[in-house]
Description:
Elements: E1 8-9, E2 16-17, H1 28-40, H2 44-49, H3 67-80, E3 85-87, E4 90-93, H4 98-109, E5 114-120, E6 125-131, H5 137-146, E7 150-152, H6 163-189, H7 199-230, H8 237-257, H9 265-291, E8 302-305, E9 314-316, E10 325-328, E11 338-340, E12 344-347, H10 349-352, E13 358-360, E14 365-366, E15 371-372, E16 378-382, H11 390-394, H12 405-432, H13 436-449, H14 453-472, E17 475-477, H15 482-486, E18 491-494, H16 496-500, E19 506-507, H17 511-514, H18 518-528, H19 534-546, E20 560-562, E21 566-570, E22 576-581, E23 599-603, E24 606-611, E25 613-614, H20 621-630, E26 634-638, H21 643-652, E27 660-661, H22 666-676, E28 681-684, H23 691-696, E29 699-703, E30 716-718, H24 725-759, H25 765-780, H26 784-791
Parallel strand pairs: 18-26, 18-28, 26-27, 28-29, 29-30
Antiparallel strand pairs: 1-2, 3-6, 4-6, 4-7, 5-6, 8-9, 8-10, 10-16, 11-14, 11-16, 12-13, 12-15, 17-30, 19-25, 20-21, 21-22, 22-23, 23-24
Helix pairs in contact: 1-19, 6-7, 6-9, 7-8, 7-9, 8-9, 8-13, 9-14, 9-25, 12-13, 13-24, 14-24, 14-25, 14-26, 18-19, 24-25
Amino acid sequence: MPITSQTIQCDHCGTPFHPKAQERFCCHGCAYVYDLLHEVGFTRFYELKGNTSTPPIGTRAFRAVDVPWLKTAIQTAEDQATTPVVTAKLGLRGVSCVGCVWLIEAIFTAQAGAVSININARTGIIQPRWECGEFDAVHFAQELQRMGYEVVPPTDESASSSVARELAHRVGICGFFLLNTMLFTLPGYLGMEEDFFLAPLFKLLSALFATLSLIMGGSYFFQRTAEALRHKLLSIDLPIALGLSAAYLGSLIGWLTASTDLIYFDFVATFVFLMLAGRWLQEFALEKNRQHLSRRQPEQQTVTNFGGPNDGERKPVDQIKSGEAYTLAPGEANPVSARLHSDASVSLEWINGEPDPVTITRGKLAPAGAINVNLTSISLTAEEAWSDSLLAQLLEPPKDNFHARRLQRVLSIYLILVLAIAGFGGAAWLILGNQAITALQVFISVLIVSCPCALGVALPLTDELCQSILRRYGLFIKNNDVWERLSQVKTVVFDKTGTLTLETPRLINPECLNMLSEDAMLALYRLVERNLHPVARTLREYLLLRLRTFSDLHDECRIHQSIGNGVYFTDEHGACWSLGKSSWTPCGNETEIDQTTATELRCNGICLATFQFEEEVRDEAKNAIQWLQATNYQIAILSGDAQQNVDRIAAQLNIDSPQSHAHCTPGQKAEWIDHHAPNSALMIGDGANDRLAFDRAICRGTPIVDRSLLEGSTDFFFFGRSLRCLPRLLQLANQRRQTIQIIFALAIAYNFAAITLCLAGAMHPLLAAILMPLSSIATLVVPWRLMHADSA
Length: 792
């Protein structure tokens, strides 16, 4: 599914999407930030960004700033400062290119009291320096939030040491060792006599640098081989370690016995460098993907004690015991099953997939995972401890016992053949030719030339090309074994809410906003500014797109809430403004409320606008489902939402009713996969109710939305509002499989020719050193077919 003429790229982030009408942006967030950057004159951001694709802004620009922790951090920094200039370390999400760095610096420089700021785009850490008492950190965070960047508590940099960085260090050092090994080996190949006075020194230095290369670089493969064998598994690192061991031990024997045909020190250094470079390319690509992932913690980590000697103090959720009272602030998730002290509106989207909040009356149980969508905090009494909570079970680390069975079989056959051929060749020369040194040379050379050098370089390049293609579609791979997983997928299982549909409802009649007066628009913004209801969040986005100065409004009018009906306030002129269910007014007869999905804005009981909303299917979801069905994938919807809602979405996407399941609990989703798609299901979900199903699925993916929860459990994730990336992923997995088969065929042909020379006793260290890079270069041509096929 290549990018077609019907698909365009977002003017802000570059994400491909299918436009509706004259749209230029993939989401409201990108449109908002684009207009804001042009309004304030920060368009240089796009010059520095260039063609780099960045994650869509989504709802990030419209969210409120988490102020309490930030105020505490800034105050602590100023209290501990010993100079007039204060510095603090803060975390920042959303930094993805040099344009982002420039924009953040520009925003900081415009703040009062700003001195300088250090930005580490790789770790997501910023260190602002400001004049003590002159800097408004909250305003700075709000300005960054408007641009799509989120200030968060800093992470531990020491804990973020990556495999890619470790490999980069090893590659650099082993590159130095390789150059020196070749420097002292080359004179011998060019004809330096054995009795030349520098020959022994050159051999010694060549052996020394090859040894250092083996210690620094080869140890990486030895450690990984040992780890795999401890788990009774075979990995591609085993033949690499075997070839390195044979080459080094043979070289030591040849050096000590003056048998030049056994000395492969240059091969050791070259092989280590090439294998490390290939492995670094793989890890670097994965790390680059993970950096696009906003590591949010949507689950509630602490709660506030309610009553007793510790009233008002925060405590971790794992310390909650049955019978204890606590409060939840707006937007926080209930960690355990608990009884409400008063009526409250909560969202059960994490639990059952229903997007609309529900009302739970006083004394009733609020389940674990229910999110407080009220304007104020709610108090509850726990009915269970955290360890017994459903949310605790859903948030446990994922269980993953997947093994690449195909790779295990191939490696088993490969190792048996190589060892058998090497042993047979060595034994033949020893028995028939009575030549021990030649027999040893044949045995070692077979192990050396059969090392997967070409695969170690060509496979990482193939993976990087695949991932670069997928990044253009807004999809990012987290683990390289996703390709083996995808090859076993036969059934694609979707959650509904937030997966097949978007997380917030679509306003069907946005023209109603154009008919409102300025006072009515201002009143409406006040009603939705801090409201977490999905309808209110949608209206807030539309309002900010029309008048961005609303974001500068700091209004202290008190908003009241009628649980289950709506919100209202009285302005400075005595007018009562309300937003809620059709026919509801704060002072009206609430028994006659119209139960339609319409939402009304009223002033003193007079209806000024009626807003209609609907659950919106993701862009190109229908085309994606059709492609999956045409390529013989089974499709299923497992949703906790009501049957009529699931049926409506299934009908839009032409999914048969028997494959659309509603009212599913987390356990029922997992059981369905166990019974209908064991070891063959690709699960696409986004909430806590999908976690158990994720454990049963062989492959998992999630869209990144406002309340993403499953990023840590997925094999891939995707941004934007389109599903076009899913067919492209599966299509690319098939192309990659065909490419790998060609690479294997070339490797087999090379090994056949090289092993024939080895068995004939004609292999020489210089010839091996030449053939190895040549075979790698030859196989590198094959992966470029992927890029050519995608651009054609």
